[in-house]
Design a protein that fits this description.
Layout (H helix, E strand, L loop, with lengths): L9 E6 L3 H10 L8 E6 L7 H9 L4 E6 L10 H19 L6 E5 L5 H18 L4 H4 L4 H13 L1 H4 L4
Parallel strand pairs: 1-2, 1-3, 3-4
Helix pairs in contact: 1-4
Length: 165
Amino acid sequence: MSEGTFEPKIVGFLCNWCSYRAADLAGTARIKHAPNVRIIRVMCSGRVDPTFILKALALGADGVMVAGCHPGECHYIEQNYKAMRRFHMIRHTLRALGIEEQRVRLVWASAAEGQQLAEAIDQLVEDVRKLGPLRWNAHWAEDPSHLHAVETIEHEHAEAIEVLP
């Protein structure tokens, strides 16, 4: 990691039963991978709410990885299919926000696939490095016309939405 090279910050939401154990296997087998990922263990990839991903990006992450059991092998029956649906929804949302959808990646890794998970981490880090820093704040610069539009909606629909003081 040289001084001039951008090193992305990646948040990884890993399933307790498969992907987290694959990460553990990678560590115990001394499989090298980029140190840029901060892992958060969740019980299931289906438990990763899209707002977790948006919050990670808003708080400074340059990319997010969601990793879980292979489809059909989830310990919670079909929750990884839920993760898959949410993943496609969040990518659509990121596109709408003007943020590169490649910053978010969904990975399937069983407990025995430490090497594959390490390779997926390296690939995501490299892809995000090419994209550069996210600079979330640049996407949300304060625009007075947006504030005026919100105030107008509030006044026009005060009865319908019961805006409380």
